[in-house]
Amino acid sequence: MNEKEIIDIEQTCMANTYSKRPVVIVKGRGATLWDVNGQEYIDCMGAYGVCVVGHSHPRVVDAIQQQAASLIACHSSLYNDARSTFLKKIVDVTPKELNKAFLANSGTETVEAAIKLARKHTGKTEIIAFMGGYHGKTFGSLSATWNKRYRTPFEPLVPGFKHVPYGRPERVKAAVTDETAAILVEPIQGEGGIKVPPNGFLGELREICDAKGALLICDEVQTGLGRTGRFFASEHFNVVPDVMCLAKAVGGGVPIGVMVAKEEVMASLKLGDHSSTFGGNPLTCAAASAAVDVVVEERLHERAASLGTYFMAKLKELQEKYRLVREVRGMGLMIGMEFRFDVYNLILGALKQGVLVLDAGRNVLRFLPPLVISKDQLNRVIEVLDAVIGEEERARVRR
Ligand SMILES: Cc1ncc(COP(=O)(O)O)c(C=O)c1O
């Protein structure tokens, strides 16, 4: 199929729920993507933060090929070697207190599972979530997600959710009651514009939960597995949650969701309380085992920390150069660049010059590149940004 045929079919046959960029991607390797015409792109979208180990990492490809040849499907009501291998790896890399996992297929499912677990464990129904927070779009997660554009058309949502300002522990204290089952928080807000909380914030949430007998749920769907320079972003703040939600990076590109929890907390989920037909699928687990191995053995979290420092410094030079840039912020290779206007034109401009970038809200360019991206590629991204921001500034002066 040629470019036009591919686009026509997607536009005709697919639900119109994504804002599409005018490009057909057919191949990826590391931090490089190719379109159907052979044009090359540097990938700073990383499939919305999925591709921590890079596209089609040879070890992930090999694991999938080998597993596919022996067993693809096996429900979690039967034991399986690939699942067992992955479970051991994931509980080994998460904080040692989090030693039980529920396996699902996406980020939003892990949040749904965490909400059910919090209700069952505490016997309470109230959940404190945060303004600017994003947790997915199924009903429970959507009730915790802040953006009203996503929520309002689907009301009534699940009752019992309260949103409080992010980074303001005194507002959390004021909102918590004896009915609070959990505080659900992203250690760094992603979709909300790459917001890093003040240093003691997560620690204060931990204390509030301990004082009130509520669970602390860290949604590390976007921050997890090396992205921010540590295995998990909550480690930057020396906080161990009761429950952690993981997805995106864990599968090496294959769909997966993992909710990990303390044993005594997970014990509240009894036979039949929760399930997923595909959760714990051997093919997925084999890919995820390879992805976790790659992050551990190639020390990709450390690479994220050092490349992130380098890239952030370069972005800050652009901030100095252009008044249009309001702020550069983030941790590791999870970085936001806030502008004084809508960034859509910048995204299209960068795309035309071979760089794929995300947004986070209207005014923020978001960078979630594979952690295997090279310094040369990051330098090229800076050159392209310099060109497109410069062009935008000149166009604004002319208007
Ligand atoms: C922090 C966070 N939680 C949950 C989700 C939902 O994940 P999924 O789209 O896999 O359902 C996302 C997706 O971007 C996310 O960033």
Q: Would you spell out the secondary-structure blueprint of this structure?
A:
Blueprint: H1 3-13, E1 25-29, E2 32-35, E3 40-43, H2 46-49, H3 58-70, H4 81-93, E4 98-104, H5 107-122, E5 126-130, H6 139-144, H7 148-151, E6 161-164, H8 169-175, E7 180-185, H9 201-212, E8 215-219, E9 243-246, E10 257-262, H10 263-266, H11 282-297, H12 300-321, E11 325-331, E12 334-339, H13 344-352, E13 355-356, E14 358-359, E15 364-367, H14 375-398
Parallel strand pairs: 3-13, 5-6, 5-7, 7-8, 8-9
Antiparallel strand pairs: 1-2, 2-3, 4-10, 9-10, 11-12, 12-15, 14-15
Bound molecules: pyridoxal-5'-phosphate.
Let me know the number of strands.
Answer: 15
Quaternary status: single chain
Poorly predicted runs are none
Backbone CA Rg: 21 Å
**Alpha-beta classification:** alpha/beta
- Rounded to the nearest angstrom, the distance between the terminal CA atoms is 41 Å
Q: What is the N-to-C order of secondary-structure elements (H for helix, E for strand)? A: HEEEHHHEHEHHEHEHEEEHHHEEHEEEH
Beta-strand proportion:
15-25%
Helix tally equals: 14
Helix content: 40-55%
Describe this structure in words.
This protein has 399 residues and is of the alpha/beta class. It has a domain at 58-297: Aspartate Aminotransferase, domain 2. The chain has 14 helices and 15 strands. It has helices at residues 3-13, 46-49, 58-70, 81-93, 107-122, 139-144, 148-151, 169-175, 201-212, 263-266, 282-297, 300-321, 344-352, 375-398; strands at 25-29, 32-35, 40-43, 98-104, 126-130, 161-164, 180-185, 215-219, 243-246, 257-262, 325-331, 334-339, 355-356, 358-359, 364-367. The strands form 3 sheets. The protein has a 7-stranded mixed sheet with strand order 4-10-9-8-7-5-6, with helices on both faces. α3 runs antiparallel to α11 (282-297) and α4 runs parallel beside α11. The protein is globular, with a radius of gyration of 21 Å. The model has no long low-confidence stretch (mean pLDDT 98). It binds pyridoxal-5'-phosphate. Residues 48, 106-108, 111, 134-136, 186, 190-191, 219, 221-222, 247 line the site of pyridoxal-5'-phosphate.
